[in-house]
Amino acid sequence: MTATNPPIAYTATHKFLHWLIALLVISAVIMGIAMVNVGRGTVQNVLFDLHRSVGALVLALAGMRLVWRLLHPVPAPVPGLAPLQALAARAVHVALYALLFAMPMLGWAGTSAFGAKIMVFGLFELPPILARDRALSATLLGIHGWTGFAFAGLFTLHAAAALHHHFIRKDATLRRMLPSRWSRG
């Protein structure tokens, strides 16, 4: 593909990473809300461990996804998209990518500053990236939490825009990111 002849759909790898990361992020947000509301104890500890593990996985997959995207061209916006809409779509995509890195890094930094270990699915431990500092931890984890709500809002906007394109505009925007067997029509 050349810059003047972009692909018409995303690659299978783009699609796989997109949907896997989306599911993991939704899971992490749900676990994040649950773990701070469930009360102290075994369930909360399990949720914290699983939330941290999923965050580490999202960080790794986001890195893979960014590299893949840089090496493989993505489709141009669908024809007929207003310039302001194209700019808004690009801005939301850039913000989502930034948050895919910022969210796990804030969690890792805040957990490190708290002094807690980050075991990734019981397989290995991430090294602390900050020295123990409970005040810094509270700040970083507070930012992590509020940024999670911002992420959820952007994610909702992204999904709503895809559904708008599919059901209202009836263009190929959503179909280009669906698995091949679902994208016909």
Characterise this structure.
It is a single chain. With 185 residues, the protein is mainly α. The protein has one domain (12-180). Helix content is 67%, strand content 3%. The chain has 4 helices and 2 strands, in the order H-H-H-E-E-H. It has helices spanning 12-37, 42-71, 83-114, 134-169; strands at residues 118-120, 124-126. A two-stranded antiparallel ribbon has the order 1-2. Helix 2 (42-71) packs across helix 3 (83-114). The longest helix is centred in the C-terminal third of the chain and has 36 residues, at 134-169. The protein is elongated.
Offer a concise description of the structure:
By secondary structure, the protein is mainly alpha-helical. The protein has helices at residues 12-37, 42-71, 83-114, 134-169; strands at residues 118-120, 124-126. It has 4 helices and 2 strands, in the order αααββα.
Keywords for this structure?
single chain; 185 residues; mainly alpha; two-stranded antiparallel ribbon; 4 helices; 67% helix; 3% strand; elongated
